[in-house]
Amino acid sequence: MSGYSPHTPTDVAAMLEAIGVGSIDDLVKHVPAHLRASAGIDLPAGLTEPELRARFAALAARNTGADGRAVFLGAGAYPHFSPGVVNQILLRSEFATAYTPYQPEVSQGTLQAIFEFQTFAALLLGLEVANASMYDGASATAEAVLMARRLLPDRRVVLLSRALHPHYREVVATYLRGLGDVEVHEVPFGDDGRIDLAALRNQLGTDTLCVVLGYPNVFGVIEDVPTAAAAIHDAGALCITATCEPLALALVRSPGSAGADIAVAEGQSLGLPVSYGGPGVGLFATHDRFLRSMPGRIVGETVDGDGRRGFVLTLATREQHIRRERATSNICTNQGLCALAVTVYLSMLGRHGLRRLARVNYQSAHATAARLDAAGLTLPFKAPFFNEFVVRSDASSRWEQLAMQEGIVAGFPLGRWYPELGDALLVCVTETHTASQIDQLVRTLQPAAVRSAGGR
Amino acid sequence: MLLDEPLIFERGSDGRPGWEVPGDTGSAEFGLPPELRREDDLAGMPEVGELEVLRHFVRMSQWNLSAATTLYPLGSCTMKYNPVVNEDLARLPGFAALHPLVPDALAQGALELIEVLEQALAAVCGLDAVSLQPAAGAQGELTGMLVVRAHHVDRGSPRTKVLIPASAHGTNPASSALCGYDVAEVPVNARGLLDADAVAAIMDESVAALMVTNPNTLGLFEEEMEAVARAVHAKGGLVYMDGANMNALMGVAKPGDMGVDVMQFNLHKTFSTPHGGGGPGAGPVAVREILRAYLPTPRLVRDGSGLRWSDDMPKSVGRVRSFHGNFGILVRALGYIERLGGPGLAEATRLAILNANYLRARLEGTYHLPFTSPSMHECVFSDRNLAEHGVHTLDVAKRLLDHGFYAPTIYFPLVVKGALMIEPTETESKATLDEFVGAMLSIAEEARTDPNRVREAPHDTRLSRLDETRAARRPVLRWRPSVTPEQP
């Protein structure tokens, strides 16, 4: 008939006869007639598949996704190459079109993949246990704060590092909006781009329930988590780290080892396209002893009737479909297919590939930063960074113009998020950036005097 | 045959180099001080070859039943066909490789897509403004209830309670609690429906909202919805509709016309985006004009220079996730909507209702139908007629797997003891429905003649029934090098 439904007129007639009605309209006649009369959907008629492809190709062509512009943007979404195997597996209908594995006997593919994902998340974050994933890094951070509140119900102050990605801070604030018993305060960053430890120590108190640090933080800077965590623990509070660029964790000390009690991350960087910001996937890990307070789905190992290993959803008594308003979270699903992407990606890169890729990112970003430094630009933050760094440049005032006219998105103008960093650009360099794109970046950002002198 | 496959961590051998990218100088130089360096050299991460990885996941995929494999009649989940063309659309480089922070002028195609989808969803539901930011249905509920709260706060007090029917999905009370509300249960009448008088009787000025699913989780249209909404509005409350079951309403009735003030869509249900084994989905929120100012920030606005994001939303509930929502899912959903068009969406709903009622007619009598009000897009049976043989809902579900079908949603809604909630969707043919009916009838017959065969199902799956109690009692939630179990 139309669209994707296979019904023939003969089918419909036979079905109506079996039901004992004369028409489909008879099946909805208990819906008030005036509602039905006004229910028409004022949208154009449908397109054929070729028309649809042409229409979407035209829309996509009006974006800069693949038009050769040099885009040095990270700031929470990171461009990386992804092995062909990842996309091939994501296109397997058996994974893509299944749902929640309520019937584990015929969902073992999904379940074992999640069990492997949980293992990867726990390994990478350096903690004992991880859940089946959350929506994204930002909502995972909010869920971590809510979990801390369950663990320390008598405390009421949440401290967020000001150098935590602003979207993450905003989502935490949104999730806490309805719960009148918690206050959120910011801890400033210091001159080196890391959390101001003296300020942190001052703000910590017997009422502090948790502190959230970006790791790396929004400036790409690697926080000194061990020192911060020690201070946080001395105050009896919980240390939460949120990682936007988990590739960094292949080189830097794991959050768990550094002292995080709960560690979350955005997994987009590990095998998913930036896709205008979503879908991504939140990684969430903690200590075994906090397991019962952890939000989200969890897959566990068990055996079948014949003693063979298998996997099931487990510990569901924390969840909304059992506990309803007393659940640890309102989350229902996880981010299954994106978690699968991360699992395939990390399997493909492996222990050595992941470390090597992280090294390429580190070195490429550092080489670029060194050139900008040599060109006379100021890199205000002296703390260690991974593949993203801050540079001050008058080019920030011409950011859009440079993007439109010169084909380069020269980082992100941080003044939009941090007025105090007026002319700063946040520049991300990954393995996807070519030598000529990096040359173009250096030319674009170098001071006007150097540019006019023909400097390179 | 289905091949066995160990965990990826149990495969491979030390020293496999892994996937390579250009640019590696081989240098191990990092400026990181030792105390900030990775402590374990990623010990435990696999070292596996490319073919092994591919084979690993291909084998595992074959252990799944999916909507592409077979009828997946999971009630309230709308497991319709996920058009493959939409996978191609979402992967167009202009969408997939588009960074969320590029200047708006370089993302006009994406922004137009978002604008068109917002308008299409508004056209379907009859409400005035839509935010596409929420990542899933439950996050849409949270967003919508935060909007409700913000509305009341603006009028002096957030109020304290939310009314929710006992048949509601668990996310409804959980989302309300996350907004700081107490949950009060609304009774349903003998027909399984809300009663406007009963709602009016418990409605007072402490109630922030009624949260209602329509059609409800019994698959029944709330016939008194308008009167119910009037009762709620009379005391200054708002009506939140869980849009999980919108596949029953397109072209049949608009929530905006029924008195609904705010609702969420589930694009992975009604609008066919793949369920992904449990996400990613998308849970857009639609509101009436009076609530527009509270929607999540940023908002898409159109001015002389085109479309752009605006943060100028002083009354907004704020952000619920980073960037602009699950954009890749939005692409797929709009692909579906434009492929069907307005008339096609209405036809999809009509055929979904036809399919559900056909199954109901064929199975009623053999299976007990606890509520006989007219069904919309799904129908809920119980195991009452099989209980005398010691066969229960779980057994029927497991035996269906042997017949090559996924199982319905079971033991939900909680108001039906031993519920079997069946939603066939409009994309299944009569022939497939007849096969499913054949399986259901043969299971009922077998329950009488050979109940143990049903109780011990499944028999033909790769694994037999799994020990869920053991999983919960002795949680093993990840692989660890030291406790790797031996494969028998």
Task: Give an overview of the whole structure.
The complex is a heterodimer of chains A (456) and B (488). Chain A is of the alpha/beta class. In chain A, 38% of the residues lie in helices and 13% in strands. Chain A has 17 helices and 14 strands. In chain A, β5, α11 and β6 form a beta-alpha-beta unit. The model of chain A has no long low-confidence stretch (mean pLDDT 95). By secondary structure, chain B is of the alpha/beta class. Helix content of chain B is 34%, strand content 10%. In chain B, α4 runs parallel beside α10 (327-363). Chain B is globular. The model of chain B is unreliable at 484-488 (pLDDT under 50). At the A-B interface, α1, α3, α4, α5 and α6 of A face α1, α2, α3, α4 and α5 of B.
Give a short summary of the structure.
The complex is a heterodimer of chains A (456) and B (488). Chain A has 456 residues and is an alpha/beta fold. Chain A has helices at 9-19, 24-27, 33-37, 49-61, 84-90, 93-96, 108-125, 137-151, 166-176, 197-203, 225-234, 255-258, 320-323, 336-374, 399-405, 435-445, 448-452, and strands at residues 70-71, 129-130, 157-161, 183-187, 208-214, 238-243, 262-266, 282-286, 299-303, 309-313, 388-392, 408-409, 412-413, 424-428.
Topology:
The complex is a heterodimer of chains A (456) and B (488).
Chain A (H helix, E strand, L loop, with lengths): L8 H11 L4 H4 L5 H5 L11 H13 L8 E2 L12 H7 L2 H4 L11 H18 L3 E2 L6 H15 L5 E5 L4 H11 L6 E5 L9 H7 L4 E7 L10 H10 L3 E6 L11 H4 L3 E5 L15 E5 L12 E5 L5 E5 L6 H4 L12 H39 L13 E5 L6 H7 L2 E2 L2 E2 L10 E5 L6 H11 L2 H5 L4
Helix pairs in contact in A: 5-14, 7-14, 8-9
Chain B lengths: L49 H12 L23 H6 L2 H4 L11 H18 L3 E3 L5 H18 L6 E5 L5 H8 L3 E5 L9 H7 L4 E7 L11 H10 L3 E5 L19 E3 L2 H4 L14 E3 L11 E5 L2 E5 L16 H37 L15 E3 L11 H10 L6 E2 L9 E3 L7 H20 L1 H5 L12 H6 L15
Parallel strand pairs in B: 2-3, 2-4, 4-5, 5-6
Antiparallel strand pairs in B: 1-7, 6-7, 8-9, 10-12, 11-12
